[in-house]
Design a protein that fits this description.
- There is one protein chain.
- By secondary structure, this protein is an alpha/beta fold.
- The chain has 18 helices and 14 strands.
- The chain folds into two domains: 260 residues, Glycogen Phosphorylase B (Rossmann fold); 171 residues, Glycogen Phosphorylase B (Rossmann fold), CATH 3.40.50.
- Strand 12, helix 14 and strand 13 form a beta-alpha-beta unit.
- The two termini are 34 Å apart.
- The relative contact order is 0.11.
Length: 450
C-alpha cells in the first residue's frame, strides 16, 4: 500500500532522495515514533525528497494502538510505502491461529521463532527482511535513492540500507534509538561474539556511512566494540519538538506532580508511591497535593499487569492514572503541572526522550531513577533539578519530592523562563540539523563526482 506524495517543484535545486526505514511510523503510538516522525519531516524541510518504508496502518490498530493526531502532522510531501508485514506476535484474531498454535503453543512458538529468524536474527521482525528489501529496490528503480537511513529497533530496519549499498553503492546511515547487543538497563552484552546478531551488526556497521546513537554512554560502548568504526559514530540526542507553554498548575492549596510517558514494567512506580507516601506524612503542602500519571500502560497494546494491579492502591495516596495523551494534547497536560516526575528504569545507558521535553517546561523536575542513568548527564546543569540520591531509599525519594515542592511554590515567572531558555539547547532541530547538513554536503559531493 502506498500513499502518493504531494508534488513539490523546486527546479532550481536538485533534491536528493532519502529512503527512510521505520517500522514504527505514524500512526504508531510507540515511544520511538516521535524520533522517526521528526526525522523524516526534518529532511523534507531541509530540501530532500523523502520516501518512508513502514508497515500497514492495520498493524498498529491491532497491536500498539494509534495516534491519528500525530499522523496528521506528517509532512504531506513524504511518500509513505507500507510494506506487508506478517508476524504472529501481532496476530490477535484467534480464528486465524493454526490448530498447532492453539493446541500446542509451546511447540508452535519454538518453530515460529526459528522461522522468523531464518531471514534475519531478530524475533518477531526478522521475517520482514525480504519484503522490506524488495520494497527498497522497487523504490530505487522508479526514483533513484541517494541515501538510506534506517532507525531501530527493530534492527531489520537497517537491512534495506545494506542491500542498496551492496547492489547499487548507495550510502546508508544507522540510527540506534536503543541498542541491539547492549542491555541498556543492566549494561550486559546480550549476544555472543560469534552469534548471528554479532555478525550482522558488524557487517552493517563496517559498511555504514555513519551511525547515530541517542547518548554518549551508548556510543562509547559501541566504540569499544567497534574501534575501527568509531570515527563514524555520532550522538544525535532525541531533543524536544516544541516547548510546552506555561500553565496555571494546580488550583487550591496543593500542588500537582505530573508524569507523562509510557508506564512500562521498567518504571519504578512502586518506589515512587512509597516515597510519596512518606513525603505526604511529613508535609502539609504535599498532603494536600496529588500525582497525575499520564501515558500508556505499556509499549504495546496490552497493559502492564504490574502497574494495572497497583492502580487500585493509588487513590489512598492521592495518585491518579489519567490515561494516554495524543500528541496534540501534550501541551494541555503539561499546563496542569507544578512539578514533574522523571521516573525511569535503572541503567547507565538510559536517557529517555521525555527528559528533553521535561526540561523545556522550566518546571522543577524530580528524578526518580538511579543517579548513574544517562538522564542525569542531561540535567546536570538544570536550574531546578532534584535528583534522588538513592533510588532504593523511600526517604531519599521523599526528600527530593519535598525539595521540589518548595521550589515549585517559590518559582517566579522569570526563573521559569530562565530554565526554559537553558533547555533551548535540547531542541530536536539542534540535534538533527547539523547531521542533515553534513549528509547533504556528502550526497552533493558524491553526485558531483559521478
Amino acid at each position: 500500500m502506498s500513499e502518493s506524495p504531494q508534488v513539490v517543484d523546486h527546479p532550481e535545486v536538485a533534491r536528493p532522495h532519502l529512503l527512510y526505514v521505520a517500522w514504527g511510523y505514524p500512526p504508531c503510538r510507540g515511544s520511538g515514533v516521535y524520533r522517526a516522525w521528526a526525522t523524516a519531516n526534518a529532511f523534507v524541510a531541509a530540501g530532500w525528497d523523502v520516501t518512508v518504508l513502514t508497515v500497514p496502518r492495520e498493524v498498529f490498530t491491532m497491536s500498539t494502538g494509534v495516534d491519528e493526531s500525530l499522523e496528521r502532522t506528517v509532512d504531506p510531501a513524504i511518500e509513505i510505502v507500507r510494506v506487508p508485514f506478517d508476524s504472529a506476535a501481532f496476530e490477535n484474531d484467534l480464528h486465524r491461529w493454526s490448530w498447532l498454535r492453539a493446541t500446542v503453543p509451546e511447540l508452535w512458538n519454538v518453530m515460529n521463532a526459528r522461522r522468523e529468524k531464518k531471514s534475519f536474527p531478530e524475533s518477531t521482525y526478522g521475517s520482514w527482511r525480504p519484503a522490506l528489501e524488495k520494497a527498497a529496490l522497487d523504490v530505487h528503480q522508479r526514483h533513484p535513492v541517494d541515501l538510506v537511513l534506517g532507525t531501530a529497533n527493530p534492527h531489520v530496519d537497517f537491512t534495506p540500507g545494506l542491500r542498496l549499498y551492496k547492489d547499487h553503492g548507495i550510502p546508508y546511515v544507522m540510527d540506534y534509538r536503543d541498542a541491539w547487543q547492549l542491555d541498556v538497563f543492566s549494561g550486559a552484552r546480550v549476544s555472543a561474539a560469534n552469534s548471528d546478531v554479532a555478525r550482522w551488526e558488524k557487517e552493517l556497521i563496517d559498511h555504514a556511512h555513519a551511525v547515530w546513537f541517542v547518548n554518549e554512554p551508548i556510543l562509547r560502548w559501541h566504540a569499544d566494540l567497534y574501534p575501527e568504526a568509531a570515527d563514524r559514530f555520532h550522538v544525535v540526542a532525541n531533543g524536544y519538538d516544541s516547548a510546552p507553554e506555561p500553565g496555571a498548575g494546580a488550583e487550591g492549596p496543593g500542588l500537582v506532580f505530573g508524569y507523562l510517558g509510557t508506564l512500562s514494567a521498567a518504571v519504578p512506580v512502586d518506589r515512587l508511591v512509597e516515597g510519596w507516601r512518606i513525603a505526604r506524612a511529613r508535609s502539609d503542602v504535599l498532603a494536600a497535593s496529588r500525582i497525575e500519571l499520564w501515558g500508556h500502560l505499556n509499549h504495546v497494546g496490552t497493559p502492564n499487569e504490574v502497574i494495572a494491579r497497583q492502580l487500585e492502591h493509588f487513590a489512598a495516596n492521592n495518585i491518579a492514572y489519567c490515561g494516554p495523551v495524543p500528541k496534540h494534547e501534550v501541551g494541555r497536560v503539561y499546563a496542569r503541572f507544578d512539578a514533574l516526575l522523571l521516573v525511569l528504569g535503572t541503567g547507565r545507558y538510559v536517557t529517555s526522550g521525555k527528559v528533553f521535553e521535561y526540561a523545556a517546561t522550566g518546571l522543577p523536575i524530580v528524578s526518580v531513577h538511579d543517579p548513574r542513568n544517562a538522564a542525569s548527564d542531561v540535567l546536570q546543569e538544570a536550574p531546578s533539578w532534584f535528583p534522588v540520591s538513592d533510588i532504593e531509599s523511600p526517604e531519599a525519594i521523599a526528600d527530593a519530592l519535598a525539595a521540589a515542592a518548595e521550589a515549585a511554590q517559590r518559582q517566579t515567572p522569570s526563573e521559569r523562563e530562565a530554565a526554559r531558555a537553558w533547555a533551548a539547547q535540547f531542541q530536536r532541530a539542534k540535534q538533527l540539523d547539523p547531521q542533515i547538513d553534513a549528509l547533504r554536503t556528502y550526497v552533493d559531493n558524491r553526485s558531483t563526482a559521478r
